[in-house]
């Protein structure tokens, strides 16, 4: 049986050898904006990616997604969750003169609190299984393993000092308070995760919080409504695609990038083909919309 790594190499080589990556820029990407989604890449990996990306693409802030282009492909760099390792990326952002958006969980960063899926109990219980539970069921299950949302211990998010050092070079925005799957929350939980996160981050940062990212890419019209009501100007999904002035600002599309992607695999992922195939495999979904719980 061919390993997953070997399959990725075959797919990446095929895409680049037949110049599918170049064709996708001309036919699909054009001068639109690809919002790239990372989580916790290593500095060397992101450095390689940005060096390659800037050879054919303008890198712009997320807030410029709807702005007119110059005819060249454009990309915006986003990172979800505010992992502590993101602090190590600051020299890379400065080197490439790139202003990324990091979406923060307001009750995890700046305090000794753990992202729930990084708790050992989450791995024992099954992270994907937990995502499919109602929010109350998930928290009850995690509680059996000693995890509580407000428990202080080993922090996994950016510290207050790290955030302060990065602020001149990074756009910090909202990603809920505790990173639940919003579609598995009741109305009150969902609204609070969206609206209170905004006010907490604004108090922490001293600046207006205007953009939101749906955890795990899960959302419905209800979540969109709460995001609008909270006063955000845009929200990023995990739906596959590119963006321009005609895009729905509360359903911005993205291209998910593996944090450890080799340069070959990164070039392949920029076409959207690997993500499309993954969505088809997991949800029989041919639309490019991310699988929903």
Structural description of this entry:
This protein has helices spanning 4-17, 20-29, 43-53, 90-95, 120-125, 127-131, 135-143, 160-166, 187-205, 221-230, 263-269, 273-283; strands at residues 33-38, 58-59, 74-81, 101-104, 171-174, 211-213, 234-240, 252-256. The chain is of the alpha/beta class. The protein has one domain (4-113, 152-283): TIM Barrel (Alpha-Beta Barrel), CATH 3.20.20. Strands 1, 2, 3, 4, 5, 6, 7 and 8 form an eight-stranded parallel β-sheet that branches. Helix 4 links the parallel strand 3 (74-81) and strand 4. The mean pLDDT is 96.
Approximate shape: globular
Give the N-terminus to C-terminus distance in angstroms: 31 Å
Number of helices: 12
Largest sheet data: 8 strands, parallel
Give a count of the beta strands, DSSP E runs of length 2 or more: 8
* Structural class estimated from helices and strands: alpha/beta
Question: In the CATH hierarchy, what is the architecture at level 2?
Answer: Alpha-Beta Barrel
CATH class: Alpha Beta
User: How would you name the CATH homologous superfamily?
Assistant: Glycoside hydrolase/deacetylase
**Fraction in helix:** 25-40%
- Looking at the structure, the CATH topology is TIM Barrel
- Our count of domains comes out at 1
- Give the H and E element order: HHEHEEHEHHHHEHEHEEHH
What is the element layout, followed by pairings?
Blueprint: H1 4-17, H2 20-29, E1 33-38, H3 43-53, E2 58-59, E3 74-81, H4 90-95, E4 101-104, H5 120-125, H6 127-131, H7 135-143, H8 160-166, E5 171-174, H9 187-205, E6 211-213, H10 221-230, E7 234-240, E8 252-256, H11 263-269, H12 273-283
Parallel strand pairs: 1-3, 1-8, 2-3, 3-4, 4-5, 6-7, 7-8
């Amino acid at each position: 049986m061919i390993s997953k790594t070997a399959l990725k190499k075959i797919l990446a080589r095929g895409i680049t050898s037949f110049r599918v990556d170049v064709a996708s820029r001309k036919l699909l990407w054009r001068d639109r904006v690809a919002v790239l989604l990372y989580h916790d890449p290593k500095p060397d990996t992101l450095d390689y990616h940005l060096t390659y990306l800037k050879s054919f693409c303008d890198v712009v802030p997320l807030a410029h997604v709807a702005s007119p282009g110059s005819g060249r492909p454009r990309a915006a760099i986003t990172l979800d969750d505010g992992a502590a390792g993101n602090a190590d990326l600051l020299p890379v952002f400065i080197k490439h003169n790139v202003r990324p958006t990091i979406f923060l969980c307001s009750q995890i960063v700046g305090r000794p609190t753990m992202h729930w899926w990084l708790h050992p109990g989450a791995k024992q219980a099954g992270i994907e299984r937990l995502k499919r539970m109602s929010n109350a069921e998930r928290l009850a299950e995690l509680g059996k393993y000693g995890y509580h949302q407000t428990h202080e211990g080993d922090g996994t998010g950016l510290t207050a000092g790290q955030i302060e050092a990065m602020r001149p070079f990074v756009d910090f925005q909202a990603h809920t308070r505790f990173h639940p799957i919003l579609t598995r929350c009741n109305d009150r939980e969902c609204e609070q995760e969206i609206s209170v996160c905004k006010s907490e981050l604004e108090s922490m940062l001293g600046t207006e919080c205007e953009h939101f990212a749906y955890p795990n890419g899960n959302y419905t019209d209800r979540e969109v409504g709460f995001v609008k009501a909270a006063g955000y100007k845009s929200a990023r999904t995990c739906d596959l695609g590119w963006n321009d002035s005609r895009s729905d600002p509360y359903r911005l599309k993205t291209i998910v990038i593996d944090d450890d992607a080799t340069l070959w695999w990164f070039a392949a992922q920029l076409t959207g083909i690997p993500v499309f195939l993954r969505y088809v495999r997991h949800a029989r979904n041919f639309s490019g919309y991310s699988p929903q719980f």
